[in-house]
Design a protein that fits this description.
There is one protein chain. With about 130 residues, this protein is an all-alpha fold. It has a domain of about 50 residues. The protein is built from 5 helices and no strands. This is Secreted protein.
């Protein structure tokens, strides 16, 4: 509770200092200097906004291109694209069994039987 109190005090002091500072600057600074500083701040804001928008657009394009490269590099020859598989509604187990559709798939074999078949095919086991 003490921390919250001191955060509130800090916020109030900051607001008061900023308001008083603006009054003092308006009172003693020449109008031309204030206008020039205001234009410079607006120009910097526009440049920052342009930079951020350009960076975001280029980053998104580069990320998409790199994702496509990695997906192409990781897929085996003849393996379907993961996005296509997701869109078709097939599960990976259905593809391994060679089923065209999950509703028409054969019942899942016993996992231990699959392991035994794999070990027999590979010729070793752990």
């Amino acid at each position: 509770m003490r921390r919250l109190f001191w955060v509130g005090v800090g916020v109030v002091v900051t607001v008061v200092v900023v308001q008083r500072g603006r009054k003092i600057v308006a009172q003693y600074a020449p109008v031309a200097v204030v206008d020039r500083a205001e234009r410079a701040a607006q120009d910097a804001g526009r440049r920052a906004e342009t930079f951020v928008a350009t960076f975001r657009r280029e980053f998104t394009q580069a990320r998409t291109a790199r994702e496509a490269e990695l997906t192409a590099a990781l897929l085996a020859e003849g393996q379907p694209d993961p996005d296509d598989v997701r869109a078709s509604g097939l599960r990976p187990a259905d593809l391994r069994r060679g089923s065209g559709h999950p509703r028409h798939a054969a019942p899942a074999p016993d996992p231990e039987a699959e392991i035994a078949a794999d070990e027999a095919e590979l010729g070793y086991s752990f």
